[in-house]
């Protein structure tokens, strides 16, 4: 059954099941927290048991002491892991009402410095992993009578940063994927959209910008005058996953403080 909402459940997440890949930190973790606070059952994935454990402990207080949270070790680039993940979700919940395909990795190097293994890993996680996460989730979304998928893209698909040629290309690929999947899956009652975060302060942001002195220059590019928070993206993802966006599909929402479409006042 498609998600409905009432005055007692304005967000429409009560007892709904949502999968968040890459949910151990940053935007994925913030989205998991928000959905758990809204009454959802949430499955988060990550590749590292220690990080999964930390995330589960952090979310313990908003998940009825873990009753509504499943933390699953899974590599989104590994199809065997995705099959095992789908089986686990089917066993525990029988369906999925929403998917946030958030798992990603970044190689921030100039084109002449990118090694083949870095290229392959970026494509495997950021593109192949997203595609097959969606594919493996489709029977579970069908079991719910439809649902919503949100893909995490990036502001870099709108502008070409010199230090991220591979990363930006993979994010452009999944941006297009959201549009084509939106067309492909509409007849099954499944909506597909993407979000394009700007400069969001996460572990990946710090990895790409290790010098704190550079952060002020980055902030000055943003018309709203601040760097983004993981919660800024989580709120947008929750909207797209919810019934409040029931007539929105095959779209991209930039969560970037105006970075790619406005010029800061001097």
Automatic annotation (TrEMBL):
Keywords: Oxidoreductase
Stored InterPro entries: NAD(P)-bd_dom_sf, Sc_DH/Rdtase_CS, SDR_fam
Alphabetized CDD domains for the sequence: SDR_c (cd05233)
Family note: Belongs to the short-chain dehydrogenases/reductases (SDR) family.
Protein's name according to its UniProt entry: SDR family oxidoreductase
Species this chain originates from: Streptomyces sanyensis
